[in-house]
TrEMBL record:
PROSITE patterns: PLAT. Gene3D superfamilies: PLAT/LH2 domain (2.60.60.20). It comes from the Eukaryota. This is PLAT domain-containing protein. InterPro entries: Inner_ear_hair_cell_LOXHD (IPR052970), PLAT/LH2_dom (IPR001024), PLAT/LH2_dom_sf (IPR036392). Residues 1-69, 88-203 form the PLAT domain. Pfam families: PLAT. Coiled coil: none annotated.
Amino acid sequence: MDSFHIETNELGLLQKIVIGHDHVGYGAGVFIERVLVTENVVDGRQYLFQCAKWLDSGQVDGKIERTLKTTAYCYIATIPDDSKSTSGRWEFILHSGKKDGTGATTSNLNIVGYGNRGSSVTTKIYDNKMASAPSSSLVQVDFGDIGDLLKVRIEIDGNGEMPDYFLDYVELKDLDTDERMVSYVAKWLKIGHSEKHAQPFREFPVFRAAFEPLTGKIKLSSRRRRHLKDPIGYVQLFGEIGETGRFPVNLAYASNSKTEISFKAEAVSIGRVHSTRLYVKTNEIGKFMKIYNFYPKTNLN
């Protein structure tokens, strides 16, 4: 880790930073995982900028300069001392929708909190303000004894005439310790969509855990899908400290020459991935194949 001090004029709330170097050629590149920026004032903030990319003329896209948007920040003055402990009671201010008026929702929200001692979910959360955009809604959740909150997942249930939801950013406050932080999302939550990367949930770190897109490949034994009712399947990854939730994968995206399908889903770290589950809807042919494979294994006649 490298650290350095910069003096600058008052910039207000940091939205992004530009980081780069002026060297090209072999051995001149650098891989940057993340950048922390701390304001050197009493009531300042500490910012997190996720990167996880090379700045190297000979690697991947060849860029030696990148613009990083703010992932999250916390208020330094609210960092609790050892005399304060949390009981899992949190206040969230959800900033919803876009400036053009899109992104409002009638969906109920499920909010899942993941801590270092477990996880907890609060379901059927809704505020009438969420039906207009842009808007902000204050909700309170009690996660109970899950320890220090590491990440949060927000899910939609698809209720009503506006099931999809655009979540801009979230202000968080621990009601027990008064610790405060902000996490940016700026993503759509979409349910029942077949488009690539559509997800009915989004996750964000509570400035204690970094996140990266989880990528993978599905290898099909055949490109024929006559046993499937719908080419859209759902994948769920399970790790040492959690799971990703289900996200859609279009099985029709396999090319003519390959039987591999790439996928990507955003999720806060789930630790080492130990298993994957694929969900598909089968037609009558698929049901028959399932029964056909079941009988020999059970010695039924």
